[in-house]
Design brief:
Blueprint lengths: L2 H20 L3 H12 L7 H38 L3 H14 L4 H17 L10 H20 L4 H14 L3 H14 L4 H13 L3 H14 L3 H20 L1
Amino acid sequence: MNKKILIMVLLCVFLSLVLICCGVNTKTIQRMQKLEEGVSNPTTIEELEVAIEKYQSRVEDIILAQQQIGIWYKMLGSRYIDEQMYGKALGAFQMASEYYPANPNLFYWIGVSAGFMANQSLDFTATGSTAQKYNYLKLSEEAYLRAIELDPKYARALYGLGVLYVFNLDEPAKAIPYLETLLDIETKNVDGMFVLARAYYTTYEFEKAVDMYDRIIKTTTSAEKKAQAEANKRQVLETAYEG
């Protein structure tokens, strides 16, 4: 951060402390502004133009500083993800989203972090409650949906939401349209195919599940995934025949 931006950030922090400790005192703030910018009480056209120019520059500096803070929170969240510190990551991405509320990538990572936190939620008080886990799962769902709302073709968010519905929230029917959209965008996304096939299977759409496993077998170059798809296909057919 260059010296000018650092000064602006420190000034913002100082003003925040003044507001918290002393209440809103507009006269105090105005006096500080006058000292900083040399603007008193402009009245003429020339004075007003000069005042606008000076304060516009201040606004631009503050915006630049705020943008940088948002970027740093995002970087911090990514570092926490690398270290598997998902609670910390969730907090950092939440802060970043306050600076960039229309960034789908941030909401995707909020969804990922919340999903991991749900898996780590234990009933330490031994009350039998699963409320904390459920709350994290719903937060993950909400974040993925927001990411998709901002970018309807965001493949990673579509996949993440599909996995959440199929394996965590046990709502496979909800996953199907999102996973179908994913495969319209990424026609060779084998992982997405597996999750969609599972969703079809658990919603008793056996024919579609078989077709999806056939598609995996045709698409993948991985011998392991091909074998898994063949085994899953046999299971679907056996279940269909038994029914």
